[in-house]
UniProtKB/TrEMBL annotation:
This is TetR/AcrR family transcriptional regulator C-terminal domain-containing protein. It holds the Pfam family TetR_C_1. The keyword 4Fe-4S does not apply. SUPFAM superfamilies: Homeodomain-like (SSF46689), Tetracyclin repressor-like, C-terminal domain (SSF48498). It comes from Streptomyces ossamyceticus.
Amino acid sequence: MGRPRTPLLDRERITTTALELVDAQGDFSVPQIARRLGVQTGSVYHHVDGRDGIVELLRERVTEGIDVSALELRPWDEALAAWARSYRAAFAAHPRAIPLLMTSPVRAPRVLEQYERAVTLLLDAGFPLADVMPVLVALENVVLGSALDLAAPEAMWEIADETATPRLTEALDAIGDHRADAAFELALEGFLDHARRRRETHATL
């Protein structure tokens, strides 16, 4: 019997299947991927470097949605804000991947290159070297927390008796729709204000 024209298994199919599993259940296993693709588990290992290798393929796939060109904008704070919004949107599309990706080291070369560009942006803007990674990690905390918030129900507070919590009821009514977006923009602006002050303090020393 001749070989099929289209391979039954490749890294793209493995990544797509793993992401489908993560989106559905928050995790994956190599045997689950093999069953979905109709192959033996050992066949999957011929294409990837074990489970960790699949996690890095997932990281690359999810981060493909980030607009890296935003890091070329100037001034630096506009670049960082645009990158953060794009970063948030990419991970909000796959919120169940966040715990999986955030609990394993970043190894994917294309993702590391994105961090290299972000570090270069901050250094060129005048941030001291010791502040660069804290600034980026703090920004990620804002971004990923908000990406998870986007996956939450719009109505996170269910009030059965408005007379018991009248001020909370008023506050919820006042915010209207897009609660998560409003909270993200508030947190992002607060983060950027603090980052600007740190940079200016360093510049005056």
